[in-house]
Amino acid sequence: MKEHVTVIPKDGIIIINDIALPCEFDPHVSGLHALQWNNGKGELEIISDGKISNLEITSYTTEVKPYVDLWQAKYDEINIPYVPTLEEAKNTKLAEINASCDRILNAATATYPASEVLTFDQQTAEAQAYQADNTASVPLLSALAASRNIPLPDLVGRVIAKHDDFSALSGTVIGQRQALEDVLDTLTTVESVHELVVNIQIPEAAA
Fold it and tell me: Rounded to an integer, what distance in angstroms lies between the CA atom of residue 36 and that of residue 126?
């Protein structure tokens, strides 16, 4: 059993133990964005209706091993271990860093439909305008408040609170992503790139 497996269908890449190989395959499930398997457990990242959800892998044999077999076949075809260049190793590690950041931030909005997420900026802008001047035109928030049968000032407060919470989460998570990228930029060997641990933490208040 391979302990570290990453599958990225969009790029046609399977990565095992930091060795990335191009492979031809169709994802075993519809909407597969990525597969991650590490040390006996893993998850599938599925895109559906513009949202990413994470599903636990329940069977290595049926969900992971077919990709491992494809990778092994390609590896055997090449007949030599593929050693990435420093640039390739950094690109792979950066993709891992970015994916870790995306997983956290996407999870924060996963319960909302994509169409509603598209209104978040307008909701925030209207809420801020209303706070500055309660006679400001806020058509979206007015309609939302009326439909929910709640006072407009209450809705404005909720929108601002959610915006502030997401801003704090985003700042912390993106800051960690940028810090990891800064470290990655300083590394000069493939080995040091492989040893860089990607562990972006969620703030306790948002956990």
Answer: 40
